[in-house]
UniProtKB/TrEMBL annotation:
The record's free-text note on cofactor binding: Binds 1 Mg(2+) ion per subunit.
Catalysed reactions, semicolon-separated: N-acetyl-alpha-D-glucosamine 1-phosphate = N-acetyl-D-glucosamine 6-phosphate
Pfam families according to UniProt: AMG1_II, AMG1_III, PGM_PMM_I, PGM_PMM_IV
Leading EC class: isomerase
Listed name of the protein: Phosphoacetylglucosamine mutase
Active site: residue positions: S65 (phosphoserine intermediate)
Family indicated by similarity: Belongs to the phosphohexose mutase family.
Role according to the record: Catalyzes the conversion of GlcNAc-6-P into GlcNAc-1-P during the synthesis of uridine diphosphate/UDP-GlcNAc, which is a biosynthetic precursor of chitin and also supplies the amino sugars for N-linked oligosaccharides of glycoproteins. Catalyzes the conversion of GlcNAc-6-P into GlcNAc-1-P during the synthesis of uridine diphosphate/UDP-GlcNAc, a sugar nucleotide critical to multiple glycosylation pathways including protein N- and O-glycosylation.
Source organism (scientific name): Dermatophagoides farinae (American house dust mite)
Gene designation: PGM3
Chain ranges of the Alpha-D-phosphohexomutase C-terminal domain: 464-516
Length: 532
């Protein structure tokens, strides 16, 4: 029998909302939690089949990241810790939407088409969840799906998304990447951080961490004791308020201000995680202007690139190829800093972590960050071997640095320690880091249109292809705002809107440019663009 007790399970997990199309998008399934039970049950089946087809352990994380508390979602993790293979994203969408009565046939067809061996393979799925109220009951639906498909599972309970990615990779590499447990994660990262900072002049470091009222709070409480000899933390938004509301990385980045509950003090580093702790931004109060200053994913990229370049040079390894991967949202001045000051190659890819990760993998060292604070650094096996062969102090530092990085996916805890270790090593204040370059003033807008899919783009989303004439109209408007102005539009992958980004020499110009481009989008998308 292909599936166990399917009739009983279908009674438990019927598709109550066939009118809602559930799409496995840029970051997995995401929707109102109460619409996701059948999707989660079916994803348990899918993950089990993926495990058989790869002959590896698959991960499933239950989370909706920076979205509101009443949402939830699923992210499926490949055996190497990366995000679900693209061809399987389509299968996930198909299984999620098939009518109840056709589910068994759909799965039987899939098994046949993909030639999945059900007899001689063992399927294993690791699952974990964030702190949302709906997450425990969705976990049960997921485990039922795995059981229905004769799979084995291990439930890790509460974890951050990157912790589950890490554990899945460790388990599939037979422990080579690390011990496949939460404790193993804390030990590896804290050991690397303490070794990397042991020779620095600064005494103790201190950080205020906004945990977005999410899972990061509980995990930081567990991590902190391992690091206490070098760094201490004040944890705020630890679950006393609503998840991602008025706090968290997305709030801080979008509103360009600190969380509602914080009053910024001088000489103090602040960070905000998102709800599942895979994104991070830094900020501080600059005493010269008394204002909030944000250090986003682009600034983190610039800092990492500068540090690695210096270490590689000092280790005599300057022939290693290193690239910085960004998206169109990267601030123009960050791209300029990377190419003109650091003289490094930068590349631009479409929005979504999987695109950045994929491009970074093609280089010997690939640094990737989205401006919104999601990113990591990838080192090829060859580079790691080359570094391990050098015996100088800088090469040893590089090895500790590599151990501090979660190479599976962006990780707020790991990225936080990376930044603090680099500042400590380079003896830089946060203000000095901030001064690497000055962000061009920018503005993000969203426009609701009848159908966002009428907008199509090319050139890593920097040029609009359809509706015809819209790009020409945008170019014309941009030209009115001087040589530093830039603007692009793209349909959102997670919301029913078109996003507009604009940057220009002054804040007022950026705001005006965004507004004008927004009007163009509205008119063209609603079919009245020809008047321009
Ligand atoms: C998802 C992506 C994030 C991207 C965002 C864009 C992952 C894990 N997350 O959250 O990288 O920046 O979508 O959202 O890939 P948008 O398409 O609505 O602008
Ligand atoms: Zn997230």
């Amino acid at each position: 029998m292909l599936l166990n007790n399917l009739d009983d399970y279908m009674k438990k997990y019927p598709n109550k909302r066939p009118d809602i199309i559930q799409q496995y998008g840029t970051a997995g399934f995401r929707n109102k939690a109460d619409t996701l039970f059948h999707v989660t049950f079916r994803s348990g089946i899918l993950a089990t089949l993926r495990s058989r087809s790869t002959n590896g352990i698959i991960g499933v994380m239950i989370t909706a990241s920076h979205n509101p508390e009443e949402d939830n979602g699923l992210k499926i993790i490949e055996p190497d810790g990366s995000m679900l293979e693209q061809s399987w994203e389509k299968l996930a969408t198909k299984i999620a939407n098939i009518p109840d009565d056709n589910l068994e046939q759909c799965i039987a067809d899939m098994v046949k088409e993909l030639n999945i061996n059900l007899k001689d393979t063992v399927a294993k799925v690791y699952l974990a969840r964030d702190t949302r109220k709906s997450s425990p009951s969705l976990s049960i639906a997921l485990m039922d799906g795995i059981k229905a498909c004769h799979g084995e599972f291990q439930d890790f309970g509460l974890l951050t998304t990157p912790q589950l990615h890490y554990i899945v990779r460790c388990a599939n590499s037979n422990g080579q990447y690390g011990e496949p447990s939460e404790k193993g994660y804390y030990e590896k990262l804290s050991h690397a951080f303490l070794r990397l900072t042991e020779h620095s002049k600064q005494q103790k470091l201190h950080l205020i961490v906004d945990c977005a009222n999410g899972v990061g709070a509980q995990k930081m409480k567990l991590m902190a004791p391992y690091l206490i000899e070098k760094i201490t933390f004040d944890l705020i938004n630890i679950g006393d308020g609503t998840l991602n509301l008025g706090c968290g990385a997305d709030f801080v980045k979008v509103n360009q201000r600190q969380p509602d509950s914080i009053e910024l003090k001088s000489n103090q580093h602040y960070v905000s995680f998102d709800g599942d702790a895979d994104r991070i931004v830094f900020y501080y109060r600059n005493d010269r202007d008394g204002k909030f200053h944000l250090l986003d994913g682009d600034k983190i990229s610039a800092l990492v690139a500068k540090f690695l370049q210096q270490l590689l040079n000092e280790s005599g390894l300057n022939n290693i190829e290193m690239i910085v991967v960004q998206t169109a949202y990267a601030n123009g001045n960050s791209t300029k800093y990377i190419s003109d000051t650091l003289k490094l190659i930068s590349d631009c890819v479409p929005t979504g972590v999987k695109h950045l990760h994929h491009r970074a993998l093609q280089s010997e060292i690939g640094i990737y960050f989205e401006a919104n604070g999601h990113g990591t650094i990838l080192f090829s096996d060859n580079v790691q071997k080359q570094i391990a062969k050098c015996s100088n102090e800088n090469a040893k530092k590089l090895l500790h640095f590599i151990d501090l990085v979660n190479q599976t996916v962006g990780d707020a805890i790991s990225d936080m320690l990376i930044v603090e270790a680099i500042l400590d090593n380079l003896n830089l204040t946060i203000d000095e880091w901030d001064s690497f370059y000055q962000d061009l003033p920018n503005k993000l807008l969203k426009v609701a249109v009848k159908d966002r899919n009428v907008i199509t783009t090319t050139d890593a989303e920097r040029k609009c292809v359809k509706p015809e004439g819209l790009q020409m109209a945008i170019d014309k408007v941009v030209a009115e705002f001087g040589p530093q102005a830039r603007s692009f539009i793209r349909p959102s992958g997670t919301e029913d809107v078109v996003r507009i980004y604009a940057e220009a020499q002054t804040k007022e110009m950026a705001d005006n440019l965004a507004r004008k481009v927004g009007n163009l989008v509205y008119d063209f998308a609603n079919g009245i663009g020809s008047k321009f």
